[in-house]
What does this fold into?
Amino acid sequence: MVDISIVVPAYKEKDNIARTIQALEAYAVKQPYNIEIIIAIDGCQETFDAAFPFESELTSVNLSTPNQGKGWALKYGLSFAKGKYVIFYDAGLDFPVENISLVIATLQITEAPVVIGSKRAAGSVIKYPLYRKFISSLAQLTTFVLFGLGVKDTQVGLKGFEREKITFIMDQMLVKRYAFDIEMLVLARYYGYPILEVPVRLYLNLTSTGITYKSIRDTFIDTLGIFYRLRIIRYYQRQVKKKKLLEKKTATA
It folds into this structure.
């Protein structure tokens, strides 16, 4: 029986993926619960070739083609998860694996369905360039203005969920690439799921896939798309109604 599923999305991470798997396995074997590690590679054969030799009883290495974006990779990885709780953890080891323990403990103790790492939570230790801090602050201001989201940080690559809740959320999501974190948390809030933030230690690994002007622009466009679907055409609301109606018809059939 699996207690915790750790899903690791990866694209151009051939230089980091082996270290990431080794660190996660060393962490997993020391924990008092059963952990599975799911590597979800998004259309990069080089990363798959670097990761596959490390597949084991603990770790599965999965390749999806073609490349569709980090949000898609997380959804793909989630499809293999069996644990009660799911942890999304970025490749590259920006966050030491020990950060995962606080997310798991918070999920278990508080029974909150969504727990996210936050650079702005009290107790966080962060070391990353000033321009990244500016970009992060701009993203948070945008999400606050558009959605009133009420969380201090949406972008940290360490998040934990009850598997049933995140599966339901991701079934409604449309963003595959840049603003998937924002859509994920906007929907969690819309569906009434409490979101708790916990501190993290962050030491930015500059060999991982970086932030570009294009990714910033496309994230902003995707974010506007989420706002349009949520506030203007009420797409998500209609999807939930359709799902409930289908479940009712199935139950009475």
